[in-house]
């Protein structure tokens, strides 16, 4: 089978998310890294591209050059990943979609709801893929939970409790460190700090597992380190279209919590629990019964969980392979082999609406607000 050509913007040397994309895209042999504008510093980006085996004429100084360079090539990239800081996602994603490229955009997809709606429209008009990297949804055991809910194994979902709370910005003495400070600066991060950074992963996960969307929410935001303009801790209560009650806590000052992403789903006949730090296990408790630990790779799991599991039972599979699962389904969709099961622009838009509405709610002392983007009301 011919490999697909893949390019990345951002994700340069030393970046946080770049390695997961490079490993994920290439893990299954579907994509070859053919082009990139990897760094805000052109020379550093080119030098890094060289170490990755990208040909020098496809190691671009910036995304605009990459767009022009790739546009006319016969072997143009089949997929472009946008792994730059948040404020650049909109213009890069829009430009590549309009030029007829498939795009995988990092979260948050845009900075505003209007931009999010624009991306949904542009993606639809282009007929191209616009995926958004809510990669936690591609862990095999998360797919198992979604399957269990969809097949009625825990009954109607009553309540979801989701957390994405870590303690890595909990040191007030380090708050001025430039790598930390920008995340709480509205000029750089937008209207929300921690909720837009981590909370939206948890909110997306709740919708993904429940097979339902968030309709209303009420938020309490706090800047527990007083020099911060944006929130470093948030509690968001929500209600889903089908009536499910949601509780979401996200924090960056929860000292002692490391990655801190976990979710519990409570249905009428059973409960489920999953944590990103032990992603190979789901805890399942049937009503009136004992808690069982379900392991990735064991017999009896859904086809979907088996499909996305690569190594034998008890061998850890981690974050890069969850990202790889997104790329597997992108490759299948690009090749026309399958419809592709990955988060799309509409999911990115829903997150942006939730972020902006949570900010409005927090400013109004937690008033309940419509969480949906105007386009979907
Ligand atoms: P980072 O600051 O560690 O790295 C950003 C990279 O982009 C650097 O290599 C920088 O030189 C490059 N860059 C900046 N502006 C650029 C431009 N205009 N053109 C080309 N390259 C440019 O940032 P990090 O943490 O890797 O985050 C990048 C994006 O990924 C963010 O939107 C973030 O929210 C998202 N992210 C998503 C995660 C997930 O779980 N899906 C996890 C971590 C980050």
TrEMBL record:
<protein>
    <submittedName>
        <fullName>1,5-anhydro-D-fructose reductase</fullName>
        <ecNumber>1.1.1.292</ecNumber>
    </submittedName>
</protein>
<keyword id="KW-0560">Oxidoreductase</keyword>
<dbReference type="GO" id="GO:0000166">
    <property type="term" value="F:nucleotide binding"/>
</dbReference>
<dbReference type="InterPro" id="IPR051317">
    <property type="entry name" value="Gfo/Idh/MocA_oxidoreduct"/>
</dbReference>
<dbReference type="InterPro" id="IPR055170">
    <property type="entry name" value="GFO_IDH_MocA-like_dom"/>
</dbReference>
<dbReference type="InterPro" id="IPR036291">
    <property type="entry name" value="NAD(P)-bd_dom_sf"/>
</dbReference>
<feature type="domain" description="GFO/IDH/MocA-like oxidoreductase">
    <location>
        <begin position="142"/>
        <end position="272"/>
    </location>
</feature>
<dbReference type="Pfam" id="PF22725">
    <property type="entry name" value="GFO_IDH_MocA_C3"/>
</dbReference>
<dbReference type="InterPro" id="IPR000683">
    <property type="entry name" value="Gfo/Idh/MocA-like_OxRdtase_N"/>
</dbReference>
<dbReference type="Pfam" id="PF01408">
    <property type="entry name" value="GFO_IDH_MocA"/>
</dbReference>
<feature type="domain" description="Gfo/Idh/MocA-like oxidoreductase N-terminal">
    <location>
        <begin position="4"/>
        <end position="134"/>
    </location>
</feature>
<dbReference type="GO" id="GO:0033712">
    <property type="term" value="F:1,5-anhydro-D-fructose reductase (1,5-anhydro-D-mannitol-forming) activity"/>
</dbReference>
């Amino acid at each position: 089978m011919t490999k697909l050509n893949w390019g990345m913007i951002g994700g340069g040397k030393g970046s946080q998310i770049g390695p997961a994309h490079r490993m994920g895209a290439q893990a299954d042999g579907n994509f070859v890294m053919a082009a990139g504008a990897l760094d805000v510093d052109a020379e550093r980006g080119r030098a890094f591209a060289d170490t990755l085996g990208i040909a020098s004429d496809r190691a671009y100084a910036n995304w605009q050059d990459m767009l022009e360079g790739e546009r006319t090539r016969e072997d143009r990239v089949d997929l472009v990943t946008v792994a730059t800081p948040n404020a650049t996602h909109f213009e890069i994603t829009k430009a590549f979609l309009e030029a007829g490229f498939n795009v995988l955009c990092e979260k948050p997809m845009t900075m505003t709801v209007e931009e999010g709606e624009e991306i949904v429209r542009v993606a639809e008009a282009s007929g191209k893929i616009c995926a958004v990297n809510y990669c936690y949804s591609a862990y095999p055991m998360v797919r198992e939970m979604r399957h269990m809910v969809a097949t009625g194994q825990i009954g109607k979902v009553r309540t979801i409790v989701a957390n994405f709370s870590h303690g890595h910005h909990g040191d007030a003495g380090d708050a001025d460190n430039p790598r930390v400070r920008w995340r709480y600066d509205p000029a750089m991060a937008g209207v929300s700090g921690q909720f837009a950074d981590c909370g939206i992963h948890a909110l997306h996960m709740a919708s993904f597992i429940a097979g339902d969307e968030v309709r209303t929410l009420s938020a309490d935001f706090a800047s527990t380190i007083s020099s911060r303009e944006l929130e470093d801790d948030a509690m968001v209560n929500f209600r889903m279209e089908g009536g499910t009650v949601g509780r979401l806590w996200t924090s960056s000052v929860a000292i002692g919590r490391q990655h801190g992403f976990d979710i519990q789903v409570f249905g009428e006949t059973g409960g489920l629990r999953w944590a990103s730090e032990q992603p190979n296990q789901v805890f399942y408790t049937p009503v009136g019964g004992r808690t069982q630990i379900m392991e990735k790779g064991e017999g009896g799991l859904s086809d979907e969980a088996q499909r996305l599991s690569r190594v034998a039972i008890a061998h850890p599979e981690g974050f890069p392979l969850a990202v790889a699962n997104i790329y597997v389904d992108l490759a299948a969709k690009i090749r026309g082999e399958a419809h592709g099961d990955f988060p799309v622009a509409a999911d990115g838009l829903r997150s942006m609406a939730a972020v902006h509405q949570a900010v409005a709610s927090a400013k109004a002392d937690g008033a309940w607000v419509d969480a949906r983007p105007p386009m979907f009301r």
